[in-house]
Design brief:
The chain is α/β, with parallel strands linked by helices. Helix content is about 55%, strand content about 10%. Helix 14 crosses helix 17.
């Protein structure tokens, strides 16, 4: 709250004191001030009035502004100070930096003094601090008698600094006096640039947010000032394609108008056009099909978010259209390194950590495409959109239990496990698949851990096999229900049921009936569905397992030799290095035989960085089982070499569906013909879950 009252604010109080009720239009006419200046002056006057114990100025939509307090004119005069505004240290820094970057005249200490009304010593201290603070921005503030204070450095770096300063100034509570200092004499130019931008809005059928329109206006004025003083941008080849865009044509027309004084080059117009494209809008009537590439990316992000949060977003088309309004400019900002400031970032991260985390993960689709990381500011914007959409449809993530999935390596088959668990427990929010080591350093809070190995944790731990069969799913569901809600659904004793049936009917094949009933009882346990497997472009099983990578052998001396022999086709093909084979063996020695995923079948794997050159798989079938542990004999060894967390998922899902049928495994183990094996691979490589 300001203890000082400037002349403008004092005059507004006097005016309202003598004419108790005034509309904004009347105040504009009587004072010659703009609407914004009047609003700022009145808010400052109210701060001062309340501080000194007077009644504040009131505002009514119908009546306008009114002041009924008792205050003498001379009291207002007495309270006036010579300086209309006392600048804070931050304000002075911004003013000085903008002056140095934009001023065409040689600047001395006197210029800074006269503008801010502070002592010579304070100015020198401020300038010293400014020099030190901004050394890392590739800019150097220097002084010479001939040129005064100047900023030396790359022209792009100067633009970047100005963009941040303009944003900070316009969004600070004391913006008005700082703007007055820097741009006070340019009011007509500011108004003309704003009019040009509003013309573009009308012509283009878009509406910028108020803040962005304000920022663009001042940014373009600064650019005009820089060009005027000879600070021009060097050409950037990556901008060239934008010469053909509508935005560029509009900017070109705008910068030729009277609102601008300097002559803008093609590069400068491109710089402005990119900013026009990257500005947030509240409305954009251009249909999504305008830009199929961006539309496709957007759909992928939304689908990835649905998959990770295990939610179904309603009215997706409408959400995509709203996101598009934000996403198109965001894409250009990210692609061309234009900064984005989001004042809500910290709050979003603090209040919605899980939602923010899942949004960030779903934006990896975009990161891959543009080849650069997405800033926390941009992630926070997307988080707000997804959060708002979920609230709108009455879905919240806040009340869901949070879980992590842990396996020794954090890749490979553990990703299958998280798919199955998401289906099995749609009301649990699965945050991440982690290695044991990463789980120990994980920063987000969680309630449950599903792990393929025993581990120490304060959360509720469920140790699960990597591939869950029907019976496993049923048992796990009962355990989780008991733990979370204190009850389970009633299990059915199938043997007793068959006994009961046999009293009243003749049973021809008792074993088959028991199996069928068992299967039916667990039918309500969800299976992996199309919704959770949006893996359309990833390789299918038969692209990885073929005649070259499948081997049939009588026996091996021990499990280590089994892994070496099974991996040999991949080493020969050059898709993995020898060290990957050692890493797989070492992982089992450290963590035990966790790779035995179902009786008779092992899927050894290690981390991608331990020697994987490209995604691949191989299979070794043994006539004679080899023990991976005293109670774990194995006849099928399937080597998995994954390059990342997800490119192998489609093939792995197909493989697990093949292995989920005990009859398939029996048939494969009986055969001595590779063709039979290939037939199974071919069958399960067709569209999964048809």
């Amino acid at each position: 709250m300001s203890m000082f009252l400037d002349e403008r604010s004092a005059n507004l109080v006097k005016l309202l004191k003598h004419s108790p009720i005034s509309k904004m239009k009347e105040l504009e006419a009587q004072t010659g001030l703009t609407r914004r200046q009047i609003q700022y002056g009145l808010s400052k006057a109210n701060d001062w009035l309340e501080f000194h114990g007077y009644e504040p100025i009131q505002y009514g939509r119908e009546t306008g502004y009114s002041f009924s307090g008792t205050i003498k004119d001379e009291d207002l005069d007495v309270k006036l100070t010579k300086r209309n505004y006392i600048f804070s240290e931050t304000d002075r820094e911004r003013v000085f930096y903008l002056m140095i970057l934009l001023s065409e005249e040689e600047l001395s200490v006197y210029h800074f003094q006269s503008l801010t009304g502070i002592s010579r010593n304070t100015v020198l201290k401020d300038l010293k601090r400014l020099k030190e603070k901004h050394r890392d921005m590739m800019l150097k503030i220097q002084y010479s008698k001939q040129e005064g204070y100047v900023a030396r450095g790359d022209s792009r770096a100067k633009r970047y600094v100005i963009e941040r300063l303009v944003h900070d100034v316009l969004n600070s509570p004391n913006s008005e006096p700082v703007m007055e200092c820097i741009w006070g004499r340019y009011e007509s130019r500011i108004s003309a640039i704003r009019s040009q931008l509003e013309r573009i809005e009308r012509k283009w059928g878009i509406t910028f947010t108020d803040e962005r329109l304000h920022e663009l206006t001042y940014l373009f004025l600064c650019t005009d000032q820089l060009i005027g003083k000879g600070e021009v941008l060097s050409a950037d080849p990556s901008w060239a394609p934008f010469v053909t865009t509508e935005e560029y044509k509009m900017i070109e027309g705008m910068t030729r108008s009277d609102a601008f004084q300097a002559t803008w080059s093609e590069t400068e117009n491109l710089y402005a056009a990119l900013h026009l494209m990257s500005m947030n809008r509240t409305k954009d009537i251009s249909p999504l099909k305008d830009d199929e590439f961006i539309q496709h990316l957007l759909q992928e992000i939304v689908e990835e978010f649905e998959r990770l949060a295990f939610v179904h977003l309603k009215d997706k088309e409408q959400l995509c259209q709203q996101l598009y309004v934000h996403f198109k400019p965001a894409y250009h900002r990210l692609r061309y390194g234009l900064p984005q400031m989001n004042p809500m970032t910290g709050r979003v991260q603090k209040v919605y950590p899980e939602l923010h985390h899942l949004t960030k993960k779903s934006l990896r689709v975009l990161e891959k495409e543009i080849g650069c990381p997405i800033s926390e500011e941009e992630v926070a914007y997307f988080t707000i959109y997804f959060g708002g959409w979920l609230r709108r449809q009455g879905t919240t993530l806040d009340d869901r239990k949070r879980a992590i999935v842990v396996c020794p390596n954090g890749v490979g088959i553990s990703n299958i496990l998280i798919y199955t668990l998401r289906e099995l427990f749609p009301d649990i929010l699965f945050l991440d698949v982690l290695s044991v080591r990463n789980a120990a350093e994980y920063t987000l809070s969680y309630d449950l851990v599903f792990s393929t190995v025993h581990m120490r944790t304060n959360a509720i731990l469920f140790v699960v096999p990597p591939i869950l069969e029907m019976q496993d799913k049923h048992t796990l569901r009962q355990q989780v229900m008991q733990q979370l809600y204190g009850y389970t659904t009633e299990g059915v004793d199938v043997a007793a049921l068959v006994k009961l049936i046999s009293k009243y009917a003749t049973i021809h094949e008792q074993d088959q009936l028991e199996k069928a009933l068992q299967s039916k009882m667990y039918d309500h346990t969800p299976k992996v569905t199309q919704f959770s497997l949006k893996e359309a472009e990833k390789p299918v099983l038969e692209e990885l397992l073929n005649m070259q990578t499948i081997q049939l052998q009588p026996h091996v001396s021990d499990w280590k030799e089994g892994i070496q022999l099974a991996a040999k086709p991949l080493v020969d093909l050059g898709t993995v290095e020898e060290r990957y084979v050692d890493a797989m063996i070492e992982a089992i020695e450290t963590n035990g035989p966790y790779v035995v995923i179902t009786p008779g079948v092992a899927i050894p794997h290690a981390r991608p960085e331990q020697g994987v050159r490209s995604l691949s798989m191989s299979l070794l079938k043994l006539e004679e089982a080899v023990d991976f542990a005293p109670d774990k004999p194995v006849r099928l060894i399937i080597i998995l070499a994954a390059v990342d967390n997800d490119s192998h998922l489609r093939a792995l899902i197909q493989l697990t569906q093949l292995l989920n049928e005990p009859a398939n495994i029996e048939d494969i183990l009986r055969t001595t013909d590779k063709e039979v094996l290939m037939e199974y691979v071919h069958t399960y490589s067709k569209e999964e879950t048809e």
